[in-house]
Design brief:
The chain is an alpha+beta fold. It has three helices and eight strands, in the order E-E-H-H-E-E-E-E-E-E-H. It has one domain: 2-Layer Sandwich (Alpha-D-Glucose-1,6-Bisphosphate, Chain A, domain 4). An eight-stranded antiparallel beta sheet has the order 1-2-8-7-6-5-4-3, with helices on one face. A hairpin with a 6-residue loop joins strand 3 and strand 4. It is elongated, with a radius of gyration of 16 Å.
Length: 161
Amino acid sequence: MAEFRRTRWHNGRMNERVRGYAHRVDIAADAERVWRAITEPQSLTRWCSPEAQLQPRQGGLFRACVDRVTELEAHIDVFEAGRRVRLIYLPNPALPPADSVMTDDLIVEAVPGGTVVRLLGSGVPGEREWDTQYWRLRTSWQQALNRLKVLVEMQRRASSQ
């Protein structure tokens, strides 16, 4: 897991504006099985959030309580079947105001022996009032991707027996 921040200079001082996160999980299963777990409702609710919804298409919608506290809603602006989903989060009155656009980019890549899933989050405001939400997003996505790995690998083992 990595954290990154974009900075900008203001009156000769560095001013942190937005921050992001990067997660990677290696799954011992083929990319098609992983993609189905990401996009099919019955699997999505098992690894992401019990109430999670996804309309798997460009222009679709993603909705989930990723941190089990705050419901997030996002527009899907990039959808490459079998490979990538990019979420642009919609403004949420339950969160502090933000001047940035928050995104999560979920990328699935077939590799020898399995699949790599990467999640790149960006645009989380760098202001102090966003610290709690930032850590919730970052750790919740890490936990969700670990649940995705366990779910898919258990399904793969069960189907091969």
